[in-house]
Every structure is written in C-alpha cells, then in structure tokens.
Amino acid sequence: MFEKKNLMINCDVCDARNLKEESYAKYESIQLNCDRIFVTQKSKEILDRLPVTMNLDEMMEVPEGMEIHLQNQNGSFTISGNQKVQAGTLLSVNGKLTIEPGCEEVLKSYYQISVNGKVIYPKSLTPYLANMTVNGASEVYPDDCIVLKPRFAIDKYFPLRAREGGKYYASKYVITAEPNADLKKLVEKGVQFVTKKLITTEEQAEDAVLLVDEETELEVIPAGFVIVDGDQEFTQALVDSYGTNLYINGDLNVKKEAISVLNELTGLMVNGEVTLAVKCEEAFLRLHPTYQKLNLVKGKQMANAVRIKIDRGLIAGAEDGVSVKNCAQVVIAEDVTAEEILEKLDFMNVAQISCSEEQEGAVSAVSKNVAHIGKDPEEGEGLFGQMSGMVKDAFGAMKDTKVINADMYVM
User: Which residues have C-beta within 8 Å of that of residue 226, sequence separation ≥ 6?
Assistant: First the structure.
C-alpha cells in the first residue's frame, strides 16, 4: 500500500509524552498545529530529531515518570469546591474558565491549568493559581461579591430578589434601565454593586449613587429620557414601549421605513453608532441627537451575506438606492453604469467587490473599509481569485499528506 510522505496534525491539545521515534521517522515532513503540547525531556529530544514544524501557543514539559491526567475542555468550564479531581491533573480550557469561591483544596490537585480565553475568580484564590497560564483575559473580583452578568440591568424584580446586605459584582456596568425599579428598596436592604460604571437617569440618581462607591464612574441621563439597554432597530414598537425621549445604550439602526416614527420623537441620545437611511437624515438631525458615530446609508439595506450580486433589476427596484454592509463578496453586473453606482450604491465592510475597470472609480468613491475592488475573481484576479489559487496549490501539495484532525491527539 502506498504510504503518505508527509503528516499534518491539527488539534487543540497534543500529548507527546510517550512519543515513539520509530512511528514517525518514516515521514519526510511533519506539520503539527495545536494550542498546546505536553512533552517530557525525552520526548522533546525525539521531536528535535524528527522533521517536525510546530505551530503552537504553549509547550508544557512534564517530569519523566510522573503520573499525569489530562483534562481538555472546549467552551465554558467551572471549577467548584465539590469537584473530585485526580492529583496531577493538567487542565486545558479553550474558552471561559470560572473558578468559584471555596476551591482551595480542589486547586491543589491541579498540576497545571492552561486557559486560552478568559478566566474569572475571587481574589482570595490568587495564591492557589501560581500554576495557571492564561492566553487572554483574567478577571478578579472581591470575595464577598455575587457575580452578575458583565452588563447588568436592574429590572423591577431585582429589588425584591436581592439579598439583605448583598454585594454584587458586574465587570462592565450596572444600568437602571427600568424606570419602575424600586431603588429605594435596594438602599434599604443595604445592597452594594462593585462595577466600573453606573448608568442611571436624573430621576433615579439620588438613590442609585448610594448603591456604588465613590470610585465608580457615573453617567447620569437627563430627566425625561428612558434608558433602552442594548443594540436596537428603530421601530414603532420601540417607541410604543419606551416613549418619545430615548437613550439607547448601544447601536441604533434606522431604516427609511421608520421616518414617520422618527418624527414622533422629542429627544434621542445614542451611546454607540447610528446607521441611518439618507431619507431619514433631516428628521434625525431635527432632534439634535447625540451619538458616537453616524453612518449614512442609501435606501435598501443588505447585510451579513456571503455573496451579493448587484444587477440592473436590483437598481431599478431600489428608488432610494442600496447599501451593502458586512459582506464577503459583491459582484456588480457590467451593465450597471458608473453614474448609477455613484447615485444609488454604497458599501461598507466588504472583503471583495468585483467590477469592471470602468466601474472601479465609482465603486471606490462610495466604499468604506473594502479590502479589494477589481475584476471578477472567477477570472483569477483579485483577493478571492488569489485565495482560490492558493487553495488549489495547497490541495496539490496535500496529495502526499496524511491529515489528522482531532480535539486531542496522542502521539
């Protein structure tokens, strides 16, 4: 039987502690792609002799003869105080690791903890985590806190559920997005929040500030405004639910169909980006709104697609034009004129726009954050054409290669 000349291993974790040189010496080349690899001094020397190319985040050397237990976790994982862990366990987490209070004895059983992502733990456990490496973010919170979502909105039920004297931690912010939330009740219960920022209204500020310490950043929204937390699509339902004075804590998308609803507003503040149909610009600016960034777009919005084709039919049916956003590839038919492109099209965050040489100048004039503008990639040019050629070359080179894909691979 024909033997492959090359070997490619793609995995999250590779256990090479018991590597046998004779099993891999037959390959002309070995490509090892992994997040982390476990070796001993002996197996590391064998790897050095083999024709191995390694792309990895971490190499962990384990003492020869030591009994080690590998535990690999993809996604979120929690270490709690009631877990049973074998002594000498190597824990590898590719995602978010949460370490709960009271884990001192459990942590002693871990020989090593490696996190590719984020870890969150109480401050008192810091001395027990000297054997932890983190490729990402570490978040430490006070021991006497109950952990909430990073962005926590106080609803009308939280004052009823909150513990007497409870201390709560939200890593990003706490927001009083519910006008009817009884903040006085939280004050009476002695509730405290540990967070970077408190967002509240002028009407609620007197009680809200008593829920945080003086180091917390404070943002007070003017009286009469209602806070809406999170990214929003501007609709009649939004106004019906929250009123005509809105503070949007997130991004806001306003399509041309919403112009009549926009005229109902008396005030608008947006703590984020506004994507606004050109048709709505006058009604929007009449409000003297505040915002972080304004993106004006033409009538019909097309977004989050892999491939979009712009032809005369689409142009003719879009009286107010077409805006394309967050797409991989856009193909413009040759019979679409440069004048029509300038008048009716705009593009934002697109990897490849395929068009004729005559159209290139007009496309460039109506584009933001576009990686490549040029000939159709099917002709072998442009970003996608180049990628296609690279893929073909790669598959040609792979015909003599054995490929192994696994979450965990033992050599």
Answer: 179, 201, 242, 243, 245, 246, 247
User: How many residues are recorded in the chain?
Assistant: 411
Q: How far apart are CA 13 and CA 34, in angstroms?
A: 6
3-state helix, strand, coil in the chain (%, to 5): 25, 40, 30
pLDDT tens figures, 14-54: 889 999 999 999 899 999 998 888 899 999 999 999 999 99
The token pair at 139 is 């978040």
Contacts of 297 (CB under 8 A, 6+ apart): 275, 276, 277, 278, 323, 325, 346, 348
Q: Which amino acid is it at 113?
A: I
The DSSP-derived string for 156-225 is TTHHHHSPTT-EEEEEEEEE---TT--HHHHHHHT-EEEEEEEEEETTTHHHHGGGS-TTSEEEEEPTT-
- Tell me the per-residue pLDDT of 122-179, one tens digit each, with 9 for 90 and over: 999 999 999 998 988 999 999 999 999 999 999 999 999 999 999 999 999 999 988 8
Q: Where are the domains of the chain?
A: 6-66, 69-141, 146-221, 226-297, 300-379
Return d(Cα 60, Cα 109) in angstroms, integer: 17
Alpha helices in 254-356 (DSSP H): 259-262, 281-285, 312-316, 338-344
Helix spans in 274-318 (H): 281-285, 312-316
Alpha carbon distance 390, 361 (integer Å): 28
The SS3 of residue 120 is: strand
